[in-house]
């Protein structure tokens, strides 16, 4: 389930008071809505799917991908036929990345339930151990870390 990260007005006012340039940008752009996904596996999958795509294309593929699966779980991804995932709009490489992530979770190489107890550096070290995932996540790595920090209340 996707949530919108809600930034309180007092936090916005604080930023505006601290930095004139930031204040000008906030006035010009307005409030930014940022999607946060509270479930780590879903957040990681979404970041793989969205990598290097326009928002509109990624949104469409994300919906199609979710519709192809009975539920978004590691087991469901691994058991899905590659042809079905390709029909959803996923590239061969992204399918491989999703399968690698799913296998890492199922084999306890990546213990999602333990991420909240880890330091930021430990989370990064866990993610980069997964075959191919670092290549997939290089562009969005800081965004992913921010989402994981939000999920675990940091």
From TrEMBL:
Domain of life: Bacteria
GO cellular component, one term: protein-DNA complex
Catalytic activity line of the entry: Hydrolysis of alkylated DNA, releasing 3-methyladenine, 3-methylguanine, 7-methylguanine and 7-methyladenine
Record-listed E.C. numbers: 3.2.2.21
GO terms of molecular function: alkylated DNA binding; DNA-3-methyladenine glycosylase activity; DNA-7-methylguanine glycosylase activity
Domain (HhH-GPD): residue spans on this chain: 47-129
GO terms of biological process kind: base-excision repair, AP site formation; DNA alkylation repair
Keyword annotations from UniProtKB, A to Z: DNA damage, DNA repair
First-level EC class: hydrolase
SUPFAM superfamilies (alphabetical): DNA-glycosylase
Protein name: DNA-3-methyladenine glycosylase II
């Amino acid at each position: 389930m996707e949530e919108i990260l809600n930034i309180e007005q007092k936090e916005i006012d604080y930023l505006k008071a601290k930095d004139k340039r930031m204040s000008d940008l906030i006035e010009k752009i307005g409030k930014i809505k940022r999607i946060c996904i509270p479930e780590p596996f879903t957040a990681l999958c979404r970041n793989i799917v969205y990598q290097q795509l326009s928002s509109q294309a990624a949104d469409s593929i994300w919906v199609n991908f979710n519709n192809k699966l009975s539920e978004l779980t590691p087991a469901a991804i691994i058991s899905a036929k590659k042809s079905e995932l390709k029909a959803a709009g996923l590239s061969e490489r992204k399918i491989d990345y999703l399968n690698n992530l799913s296998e890492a979770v199922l084999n306890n190489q990546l213990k999602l339930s333990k991420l909240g107890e880890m330091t930021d550096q430990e989370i990064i070290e866990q993610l980069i151990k997964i075959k191919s995932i670092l290549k997939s996540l290089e562009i969005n790595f800081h965004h992913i870390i921010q989402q994981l920090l939000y999920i675990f209340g940091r």
